[in-house]
């Protein structure tokens, strides 16, 4: 006689008392082929023991739930809460104010129907019993939550491979989310400010009394009114005083102005530790002033305090790259990046943090390599950028290199072509495969002075060839690596201008690509068992089904809203929320879904040692992953729907 | 264990009926400290109306249960299970329609149980389902001694507490009494293991 298996999620996190209570409230239920659950049955939580149930809305297929006969895993049965109601279609990025909460809305919502595709055996648990337990057990609540980000968190927690139980959850959580904690969780150094006109002697005294190795400097002409931000502050360190002394300056008469550094990198109080680490790594700085919502500095984040807080080793890789003097030593550092990715993944660190850190480290590798290849004058008169997923900071496995070289107008060097060739070749040797579409600086089209580069971009906006959209997508995602950053800034400026001058139809054409791959929900419908045998194996291409439509859709919205500064999907979403083009909630969901696909893709790639692997067979996933995969595919589907309504792309 | 003359006689007569000489060893005197735990899943309790769906058998040698080398066989019944009983045994049409025939099942099961005494919880039911099939297959019923752990348990509990014989009707109460762990799904194999564990306690 089948009964509840407590090693099966979501029941594997219950206490003994909770198990008893669930047991009492569980029955076994059988549905013959084609039988549906009646309205009275929609008050239960179901686990599919054997068989196959499909969920329909108004007769249209939504998704499927599979029993153990469809998977090779133990304890991998799908579950569903039949009480969940379809969400009303709130997906067009409307602001909350536009949504009149209508009391009748719930009465208008038709519930889902559940139909057995084959003879099916179910466990049915009283909904109220599940509610009672999830009210007191956080882990269950996460697993059966209606809210996608909650369930994704549950998956991450499980990924970390540590033993789950409610008691140890707090410690777990701390390890998991360490990169997501706000920077203000770290003890900040106190703020001491001197004026730029104050002399070095006063600054040194302030430091000594405060026991600090730095002091903040307020620039001359600073007015204390509400429009001035502390972001204009400078910093003076013990190092600067040392320089002044070795310049034989008299500390008592020399103002701080000449030795302080201004235009500091700062960080916001609500940024997370991952962001701070990234900024420090990327710009190789040791101190970050922390600015609150009012633009006031509330403390200084010191690198050593932060490292002590996280005990993380991306910094060490960074140092390795920094110290590399030739290709072999650089290759060692690149090897470390690979190991770092694996470790981060196994620790259940959030994908977005891993990928952005990897982007930063890769950018350092590229910088170092470029330095090793070219003389200083080339470095100063050109700008190296990376594009595509590397530019967006969303490439984790080194799948290919997309890069370009922007040259200052009027600058020439006879060896440029050879440098570019060497750069691409060396990167390939380091394990960044050559780009098959030849979007690399060795291709003259991607190695041009500013003016022709801009002309080229304008020509692409005419969109006379489908490849032009691909080129534009690449350059939209361009991110600075090294050289003269202003060259990239001018390219971005031109992307905006050229877009304004382009045909109004351009954005529609551009958006269309997001819909080019079919609806993957077909997958669950195709899952029909062969006569007396196993179902045919179908896999889902994570890139086509998930990553690409999300990335390209977000890219299109960013283009339309003139968002060019931060090409990462996360940055674009943030800016789209600020531009009120999307609600915060919608943006969060899109980002969560994207990161889920990226994590799945990484997991496939790590398990096969084929870094191009992006196909996943849903039957090989855990029930929780499969549930989330479905949910995230549903997010993609609704996003495509939003795009096609917004850009009138009725798919013929 | 000594066989009395009547038993010897009936064994001899049964052996006479045996149509499959290769199974003659089933009639030999069992070795000491060897048993086989069995459990079946059926579509109901009446051998005239219902059908066998699966059989599990596991050797018990001394105080060891040979869980790794047991048999767990699914059979194709002449009539497919009805929905009211599927929720009890969990075997759907799809699970048994491509399963083995009863004869195939017996060709594996009988050599496996050999001359060992059968240990079960209310094994008369299981044997009641097996015997008609066995008779058709080899000409005689199962010659094995049958041990019901319910009666061993009742004998154990005699005078220790009240009202036990009726309670002993439930395998669960025996399992609980000896703190025997619930093994995952209730299929024939897991039930046979739990029966074997209970047997080691009550023998």
TrEMBL record, chain A:
The name this protein goes by in its record: Possible nucleotidyltransferase
InterPro entries for this protein: CBS_dom, CBS_dom_sf, cNMP-bd_dom_sf, Diverse_CBS-Domain, DUF294_put_nucleoTrafse_sb-bd, GlnD_Uridyltrans_N, RmlC-like_jellyroll
SMART domains referenced in this protein's UniProt entry, alphabetically: CBS
PANTHER family with a match to the protein in the record: CBS DOMAIN-CONTAINING PROTEIN (PTHR43080:SF2), CBS DOMAIN-CONTAINING PROTEIN CBSX3, MITOCHONDRIAL (PTHR43080)
Gene Ontology molecular function: any one: [protein-PII] uridylyltransferase activity
The organism's taxonomic lineage, starting at the top: Bacteria, Pseudomonadati, Pseudomonadota, Gammaproteobacteria, Moraxellales
One Pfam family named in its UniProt record: DUF294
Alphabetical keyword list: CBS domain, Transferase
Annotated ranges, domain CBS: 260-316
Native organism: Psychrobacter arcticus (strain DSM 17307 / VKM B-2377 / 273-4)
UniProtKB/TrEMBL annotation, chain B:
One Pfam family here: RNase_T
Lineage: Bacteria, Pseudomonadati, Pseudomonadota, Gammaproteobacteria, Moraxellales
GO molecular function, one term: DNA-directed DNA polymerase activity
Record's keyword terms, sorted: Exonuclease, Hydrolase, Nuclease, Nucleotidyltransferase, Transferase
PANTHER family in alphabetical order: BLR4117 PROTEIN, DNA POLYMERASE III SUBUNIT EPSILON
Enzyme Commission (EC) number: 2.7.7.7
Protein name per Swiss-Prot or TrEMBL: Probable DNA polymerase III, epsilon subunit
Enzyme superclass (EC): transferase
